[in-house]
Design a protein that fits this description.
mainly beta, flat, five-stranded antiparallel beta sheet, 45 strands, about 5% helix, 5 helices, about 700 residues
Length: about 700
């Protein structure tokens, strides 16, 4: 079957499906969902309009052998219409499938790696994830297997329902029915964003971003097709023979593949595709030069030995890499990642050893050899060779260390205790490190050379004092005359916090739906912030703010839910430090939730015509019901016409609290419609005409 490094979850069929053959479709304005999900034991039908007017109908029902289907269509108000002159029957075996696919069989067989047509036919009927993915990506194959029907003359632009009725080999219904409905309008998928390329020799890695599944313009996208071409050629190449599926849990994607040659500029792009095979108008092409940046292979078998008190010999085998041009030898200290290059010029290919006189005794050294390529790029380190150079005169460490912060001078005063050895003592090394993320982020030596006294005043990293809330680690070690260093004694000190932190510099609030708001803010410039407090209030009642959440410092966004429609909100955020100090308040602009969808139609519209009588003149009385909350509807409009399909004219606008109306100019036989209008100005999309009759 098709293979892909990015298939994390199968996307199988489909949108909700109604089994009841007697039910009439209730046409809705939204398109049916076409990015697919599998539900055990369920069958479904999806409608995928194409811009050329064709309507693709996919289903996931595994037709029994010998069974086929008939297709019915129901445009708005037109009733069900049979659009297949005869029942559609899929192929029944591998031979028929191969005959139906004709010239396409060779490419399908090559891409899937299956030569036997009958074996491939059985796999396509297996109902597995790979089988359904293969059918969805190859329309001609899906048609042959009966999983796809294309309506060449669908009523494009109209709300339309489709019904697939499964029939047996005699053309008689089996009782299995699939239905779905959609607005038959096609939209091109949104393009990908953030396309980037990187390479390691001929191997190129493309990465890109794509919005989440519920983003408008992406609902029907289920696959990506990465493509490329050389900048000096017109031939377009596919990255994969199969498909790269979109998953609903990812917004970042990548793929790795080989290009034909290096040191050449290529043009790369990603085509997101929907079930109808449509892609973005502008794929956003990226031009990238695939340079020969592959390093030589790293060496193994490097060894070393101590040949005198302070001299080490390193030896290594010859490199077999065809790209090798020489060698460089590196030395570092045990416990330190960084290594220093010992060779100013690369050694010749036949120079396979180096003698190094170490700078000091009593330390353990690390050595590595790197192969230099003809392209000037070095290989990674060889195996690391660790060699200890002994020195038994290690000095004794200090016995006590205190660090005290002086708030008046903004300095840290260090004091320690030690009884130095007069015969083997040079001085003390004092270290300082800032704690970042709970760990020391590298140590700085406070003196350029060893000091002899047992105290030191530190004025901070910049010499101007210390920032509140910062935590530092101090260490003192003894240095011998031979450069040997004792164990380091450490102590930790946090600078007291007395000044409230600065508030965030920016806050933004935006609606996400009708009753949800997404609030985000920038980080406070203060370094000791541990939490943020988020509140909301109305413009008239800022002293009655409600705390929405207290969030850790690494969280700077929040979704407020359950907002009231048409009520103004102001959101405010403050920063809180480790001492409990709270910053000034930063407020957002006013946000007013508004309804964005039209109200539902009225129902149970009653229209009664009355002749003139002693109780009053002739008139037509209307009464109706409505399910919307009163605050979400601003008014009702009443329309009248002398024909059910004629032109209706507005005759009245009524308050949302009124659900009755008397038409003094009404007559028996007149037709009436009532439309609710929402607070957002949108009118209901439909209204059923009702005729006035004498009652």
């Amino acid at each position: 079957m098709f293979k892909s490094s990015c298939i994390l979850a199968a996307l199988l069929l489909l949108s909700p499906f109604r089994e009841n053959v007697q039910a009439q479709p209730q046409l809705q304005s939204q398109q049916s969902q076409t990015v697919l999900s599998e539900q055990a034991g369920s069958s479904a039908l999806v409608i995928a309009p194409h811009q050329d007017g064709r309507i693709f109908l996919f289903h996931n029902y595994n037709l029994p052998l010998g069974h086929g289907f008939k297709v019915y269509r129901n445009a708005v108000g037109a009733g069900w219409e049979l659009i297949t002159d005869e029942a559609v029957y899929p192929v029944q075996n591998g031979g028929q499938l191969r005959m139906r696919l004709r010239e396409n069989w060779e490419s399908i067989s090559r891409d899937t790696g299956v030569d036997d047509a009958q074996a491939f036919f059985l796999m396509m009927r297996s109902g597995t994830t790979d089988a359904l993915v293969t059918l969805l990506t190859l329309p001609e194959l899906a048609q042959a297997m009966g999983a796809l029907f294309i309506d060449e003359n669908g009523p494009y632009g109209q709300h339309t329902a489709y019904r697939i009725v499964v029939v047996n080999d005699l053309g008689l219904p089996t009782g299995k029915v699939l239905e779905s409905e959609a607005l038959l309008e096609a939209s091109l998928p949104l393009p990908v964003s953030g396309l980037k390329a990187d390479n390691d020799g001929r191997t190129v890695t493309l990465s890109w971003d794509y919005p989440s599944l519920n983003t408008p313009g992406t609902e029907e996208v289920f696959r990506f097709r990465p493509r490329f071409r050389r900048s000096d050629e017109s031939r377009v190449r596919n990255v994969l023979p199969g498909v790269l599926l979109r998953t609903d849990s990812n917004t970042s994607f990548q793929i790795t593949f080989d290009v034909p040659v290096m040191n050449t500029a290529y043009e790369f792009w990603i085509e997101p595709q929907n079930l109808a095979g449509q892609t973005s108008e502008d794929p956003g092409r990226l031009t990238f030069f695939v340079a020969d940046n592959a390093p030589p292979a790293a060496l193994t078998g490097v060894s070393g030995s101590l040949i005198s008190e302070d001299t080490i010999e390193i030896t290594w085998p010859a490199s077999t890499d065809m790209n090798a041009a020489g060698y460089h030898v590196y030395r570092g200290f045990a416990g330190e990642e960084e290594m220093m290059r010992l060779t100013a010029e690369p050694g010749e290919l036949l120079m396979l050893s180096l003698t190094d006189q170490v700078p000091s005794l009593g330390r353990q050294y690390r050595y590595a050899v790197r192969v230099l390529g003809q392209n000037g790029i070095e290989s990674s380190n060889s195996n690391i060779v660790n060699i200890a150079v002994p020195d038994l005169r290690k000095p004794e460490a200090v016995s006590h260390l205190d660090a005290i912060f002086d708030a008046e001078t903004k300095t840290v005063k260090l004091q320690w205790q030690h009884d130095p050895d007069a015969d083997n003592f040079r001085g003390y090394r004092v270290l300082r490190s800032l704690i970042t993320g709970g760990e020391a982020a590298g140590y700085a030596q406070l003196s350029s050379s060893a000091i002899n006294g047992q105290q030191l005043s530190d004025r901070g990293p910049s010499g101007l004092g210390f920032e509140e809330g910062r935590t530092f680690v101090y260490g003192v070690a003894v240095i011998s005359n031979t450069g040997q260093v004792s164990d380091t004694l450490f102590t930790r000190l946090q600078i007291p916090v007395v000044t409230p932190p600065a508030p965030p510099s920016a806050i933004q609030a935006e609606l996400r739906g009708e009753t949800r708001a997404f609030i985000s803010w920038s980080s406070s410039p203060s370094l000791d912030v541990t939490h943020y407090r988020l509140e909301s209030h109305t413009p008239e009642a800022s002293d009655q703010a409600e705390t929405l959440a207290t969030l850790p410092a690494n969280t700077r966004s929040f979704t407020a839910r359950g907002l009231r429609l048409s009520q103004p909100y102001i959101f405010a955020v403050t920063a809180i430090d480790s001492a409990g100090n709270e910053s000034d308040v930063l407020q957002s602009t006013i946000l007013i939730p508004q309804r964005t969808t039209p109200p539902a139609p009225v129902y149970n519209l009653q229209v009664r015509a009355r002749h003139a009588s002693d109780t009053g003149p002739a008139r037509v009385s209307l009464a109706w019901q409505h399910r919307e909350a009163p605050e979400s509807v601003s008014l009702f409009r009443v329309y009248r016409s002398n024909q059910a399909s004629g032109l209706f004219e507005a005759i009245a606008e009524l308050s949302s609290e009124i659900s009755r109306y008397d038409d003094p100019d009404g007559r028996p036989g007149y037709w009436y419609k009532v439309y609710p209008v929402g607070a957002n100005g949108l009118s209901a999309r439909e209204a059923r005409p009702v005729q006035a009759v004498l009652r």
